[in-house]
Design a protein that fits this description.
The complex is a heterodimer of chains A (380) and B (314). With 380 residues, chain A is of the alpha/beta class. Chain A has one domain: LarA, N-terminal domain (Rossmann fold), CATH 3.40.50.11440. Chain A starts with 6 loop residues before the first strand and ends with a strand. By secondary structure, chain B is an alpha/beta fold. Chain B contains 8 helices and 20 strands. In chain B, the strands form 6 sheets. Chain B has a 5-stranded antiparallel sheet with strand order 9-14-15-20-17, covered by helices on one side. Chain B is globular. The two termini of chain B are 32 Å apart. The chains are: A alpha/beta (380), B alpha/beta (314). Chains A and B meet through strand 7 of A and strand 13, strand 16, strand 18 and strand 19 of B.
């Protein structure tokens, strides 16, 4: 062994039976010098448990404005229910201590209409500060600066909270914010650059991560929720996993999310379901496909929350008369034709892989079996 | 098969602008240039060293393609990867050739670096707006010490002179598959690639992109002397002997790349990294792992050269 103690694992090798029959599973090689925590953040101390807090008052009637006071109440109720603590402070202390450096992984890809809501992110920051985490030890982060800047988080956050993006945009010219020694090496389609590297922020600075995805449809994965927000949101060079109508997200999402230290440090999942997207995701450039679940989901198990999300999005699509996220028919496939996809909810640009959620459960990231997922519904 | 040792060749500038531009040429640090024969006397009178280059000489030179990255909306998408136009494979195929290159606007420095990296005899006609950048590149190239290292290769490609093999070479170079061009298969341990052999049927070469990929798979990534991570538009040329190596890195993307990761098979230590446009450059984050050496180049403009040594074993 060289100066580092590499932990190499062939993540997918034992999981071939879990993959879709007839589809070749790429050979993944995860390289990391980090050992897992005694209790990895995912699925954390409450596998299979989800608290769903709904409030009709969290948005105005048009779904445009967020009521920060209601969000605070929803967050308090959700965190207390998840942890069993009697106070919000006690609940947050179950996860964080003053010496932590906490990253808040937002989702800015659904701008302008469906992104991690600034009032929710602000509420998370407020609670972290209450626990004793200095504002300067809190970082709101995302991969692309051009997506982050349009949201304007700083105006909502306590002074001193950092906002960080790894790259200016999705141009594949900026690699310095990624750790060259922590990566997944996989050849999806014969590409030469077969490495996806984890953000240095995650490997080098953060001790804990709060994951704040949205409820969104996704053209490759079926939905994009907790798993994809951290997996594809903390690694470089991931778009290569889908091309020409085909995607390897079935196995890639869980495999990336399972790499240390990401898996251990991602300790809390708070899914922003105030607004959602039922088609055209992960983007939300128009309001045509936006709807308003007016919910926030809390948990430590990203698989369980994403399993619920699959039904949220698919039920909405059914209600709108659109094809299911599970549809694999070639007749609905218009390869690389994003305009057609945006115009017609019955058009896919890739064969979607909603099975990525179940696949992630086989990697030990959580519970995908609905019979074993316990949901506590709270109305505020 | 022994490859030719490369000699450093500074590419020549062909300058058809009037002699009144002499101050600008000097300002760019250029003292030698090729000019139309009818203008040679005037340029000499202006104090520059010139070589007349007429239409005859120009027509005797092989015209190169325009270097850089281009979209090809006229072609169906054979690959999601960017279209890189590079000439290194041509230089390797005909190392003694004499070439002419009309460098696209904004690509003069890259074209000069490409010619230098392959030791090719190239005359470059450039857009006048590129004069300053071209001059800086010539100064950079002039500062690079000569090297007697030989090109590294993992694959021997039998060249029958056909356009088909030419496209195979082009797309292997595009993948940074290090090859040597040979007249017949060789027995010295390289992977032999002969279009039309049982392993590499001629019909497969009709899709040269897929053919190059099949060569990669046959070779395996583990046996490759060089890998590049962090970009799909950087092509490399590796020269080496048992104790020294020189790596040329050419960025065809037109934009700087931060944090390019290079993996070289074997045990190497960087001695010096020269990065065009960067006064203080260096290779960083050196890691030895799995029989290979990894390093990061913090930033890469159009061109960089990394010299390495194989450290003494303990």
């Amino acid at each position: 062994m060289d100066r580092r103690a590499f932990l190499e694992l062939l993540a997918a090798a034992p999981l071939v039976p879990a993959a879709r029959a007839g589809s070749a599973v790429p050979s993944y090689r995860a390289v990391s010098r980090f050992a897992p925590a005694a209790v990895p953040g995912m699925p954390g101390p409450w596998p299979g448990r989800v608290v769903s807090v709904r409030s009709p008052r969290c948005l105005d009637e048009a779904g445009t404005l967020v009521d920060a006071d209601v969000v605070r109440e929803m967050t308090d109720r959700g965190m207390r229910a998840l942890t069993g603590e009697t106070t919000a402070l006690g609940a947050w202390r179950r996860f964080f201590e003053p010496r932590d450096v906490v990253g808040i992984k937002v989702n800015a890809g659904g701008g302008p209409h469906v992104v991690s809501s600034p009032p929710i992110v602000a509420e998370i920051c407020r609670n972290l500060v209450a626990v004793g985490v200095p504002a300067s030890s809190i970082v709101v982060f995302e991969r692309f600066r051009d997506q982050l800047e349009g949201i304007g988080y700083p105006a909502h956050l306590p002074e001193g909270v950092g906002v960080f993006a790894a790259e200016a945009g999705n141009e594949r010219t900026q690699n310095r914010a990624y750790d060259p020694e922590t990566y997944v090496d996989v050849d999806f389609f014969g590409e030469e650059d077969t490495r996806s590297n984890m953000m240095r922020l995650v490997t080098g600075r953060l001790t804990k991560i709060v994951n704040v995805p949205n409820m969104k449809d996704h053209g490759a994965t079926g939905v994009t929720g907790c798993l994809k927000n951290v997996a594809y949101g903390c690694f470089s060079n991931v778009a290569r996993s889908h091309a020409r109508g085909q995607t390897h997200t079935l196995t890639a999402v869980g495999t990336f999310a399972a790499v240390e230290p990401l898996r251990s440090r991602c300790v809390l999942q708070i899914m922003d379901g105030l607004r959602a997207v039922w088609h055209g995701g992960p983007f939300a450039r128009t309001t045509r496909y936006v709807f308003h679940p007016r919910r926030i989901l809390f948990g430590t198990d990203p698989v369980a929350i994403d399993r619920l999300l699959l039904d949220v999005i698919d039920d909405k699509r059914k209600a709108e008369g659109a094809i299911s996220i599970w549809d694999r028919s070639p007749k609905h496939l218009r390869v690389e034709d994003a305009d057609a996809r945006d115009a017609d909810p019955d058009v896919n640009i890739l064969i979607r892989e909603p099975g990525h959620v179940a696949y992630a459960s086989h990697l030990g990231l959580g519970t995908a079996d609905l019979a074993r997922i316990r949901v506590e519904e709270i109305e505020v | 098969m022994i490859s030719a040792v490369l000699a450093a060749v500074i590419p020549a500038l062909y300058w058809a602008q009037p002699v009144e531009t002499a101050p600008a040429v000097r300002q760019a640090g250029i003292e030698r240039l090729c000019v139309p024969p009818g203008a040679a006397a005037a340029w000499r009178a202006a104090g520059l060293t010139v070589s007349p280059l007429g239409d005859d000489e120009r027509s005797r030179r092989t015209t190169l393609g325009p270097v850089g990255l281009r979209s090809r909306p006229d072609l169906a998408s054979a690959s999601a990867r960017p279209w890189v136009f590079a000439n290194g494979w041509r230089f390797q195929r005909a190392p003694g050739g004499r070439y002419w290159c009309d460098a696209p606007t904004g690509r003069a420095a890259l074209a000069a670096a490409e010619a230098f990296a392959y030791g090719a005899d190239v005359v470059l006609a450039i857009d006048p707006s590129d004069l300053e950048a071209f001059g800086r590149m010539l100064a950079f190239l002039s500062s690079v010490p000569d090297s007697a290292l030989r090109p590294a290769a993992d694959v021997a490609v039998v060249d029958d002179g056909s356009p088909t093999v030419g496209e195979v070479l082009n797309l292997m170079a595009r993948r940074n598959l290090l090859f040597e061009v040979v007249p017949r298969e060789i027995p010295d341990g390289l992977l032999n690639v002969r279009v039309g052999s049982a392993e590499f049927p001629r019909k497969d070469a009709r899709d040269p992109e897929a053919f190059a990929l099949s060569v990669r798979h046959r070779l395996t990534d583990e046996r490759r002397s060089l890998r590049i991570f962090g970009s799909e538009v950087v092509l490399a040329r590796l020269l080496r002997d048992a104790g020294h190596a020189r790596l040329h890195l050419l960025n065809y993307g037109g934009r700087p790349i931060d944090g390019l990761r290079v993996v070289l098979r074997g045990s190497w230590a960087p001695v010096e990294a020269r990065v065009f446009g960067e006064s203080a450059a260096g290779a960083e984050e050196l890691v030895a792992s799995g029989g290979a050496t990894e390093l990061t180049l913090p930033t890469l403009g159009p061109y960089a050269i990394v010299d390495l040594v194989s450290p003494p074993r303990p």
